[in-house]
Design brief:
306 residues; mainly alpha; 16 helices; disordered N terminus; disordered C terminus
């Protein structure tokens, strides 16, 4: 039994899809700017990202410079709040398009549902941890997922995926490590050669590129997470169990259909949750967005070893 309905014969015209995705991106960007107005004002008074753009920011955000570079360029031409608006609009549209293409084996209604779901819940995914570069990071993740899933030229795929790992390492090293491990299991063991890249990048960022950056948060967050006061105050903490209960049958079928060939995916999620529990905040649901492209990769259990 297929866990998710396959593509229907009737397809949305490409031109119409591009227009709809543009309207959805405009909605997402405007909603985010209105919702995070306090954070935008904080930037104007404290210059948190301005310091990062100058290479003087605090860790760990200073070590995640790559997705912020387009925002830095926009800030040279626009006020910060307008720059964030344009950034989210452009990358929002790119994310919606890439997600649509990556999910081409799903039905039209599931593809639309995924896009609308992202737009509607985007602000809640960042409810307690706003980061304007989230969609830039998700774009890199989607590109990496498309390369590892769709590209048939093994040599070119290996090179381009390695480039993605390098870019991800300067965006979020933990996600880069997850993607390197995923490719090792999904494709071939040769991709394990990319596993040291995120580690090396962090050493370079901390010791060479930004040696003066200091962590502004506690290194170990386990006790904070165990107190549960962060997670209880987050609205999505109550919506997500509702979604699981409502779609329990489909979720159970999906896991049953994919876990045998793609067991490593669930191990990566478990390991990442443990990592976030130890050194992050378990209620920062935006941290789990990079798993969505990988979920789409394994959606029909296809695995190639050529």
């Amino acid at each position: 039994m297929e866990p998710i309905e396959v593509s229907s014969v009737k397809r949305t015209p490409q031109g119409l899809r591009l227009v709809v995705h543009a309207l959805m991106a405009i909605f997402l960007a405007n909603a985010a700017n209105k919702f995070f107005v306090v954070d935008l004002d904080y930037e104007l008074t404290h210059g948190f990202y301005a310091r990062i753009f100058q290479g003087l920011g605090d860790a760990p955000d200073q070590y995640r410079i790559l997705p912020l570079l387009p925002l830095k360029w926009l800030c040279d031409w626009l006020p910060f709040n307008h720059a964030v608006l344009v950034y989210n609009l452009v990358f929002g549209w790119v994310v919606l398009e890439l997600q649509w293409r990556l999910a081409r084996e799903l039905s039209e209604k599931w593809r639309w549902a995924a896009g609308f779901g992202l737009c509607v819940f985007y602000i809640y995914l960042q409810y307690t941890g706003w980061r304007p570069d989230t969609l830039g990071l998700l774009t890199l993740c989607l590109v990496a997922a498309m390369i590892i899933k769709e590209m048939r030229d093994a040599s070119l795929r290996f090179v381009l995926y390695g480039l993605c790992i390098v870019l991800l390492s300067f965006s979020r090293a933990d996600i880069a490590l997850i993607y390197a491990l995923f490719a090792t299991f999904y494709r071939k063991k040769i991709y394990a050669a990319y596993i040291p890249i995120p580690i090396v990048s962090q050493i370079l960022l901390q010791s060479v590129i930004y040696p003066d950056a200091v962590y502004y948060s506690k290194t170990v967050m386990l006790l904070d997470n165990l107190h549960l006061h962060y997670i209880v105050r987050h609205p999505l903490t109550y919506l997500l169990p509702a979604v699981v209960l409502a779609f329990w049958g489909q979720i159970k079928s999906f896991v049953a259909a994919t876990i045998q060939k793609n067991y490593y995916f669930y191990l990566l999620i478990a390991g990442y949750l443990l990592l976030v529990l130890l050194i992050g905040r378990i209620n920062e649901y935006r941290l789990y967005l990079p798993f969505v492209p990988l979920l789409l990769v394994i959606a029909h259990g296809r695995r190639s070893r050529e």
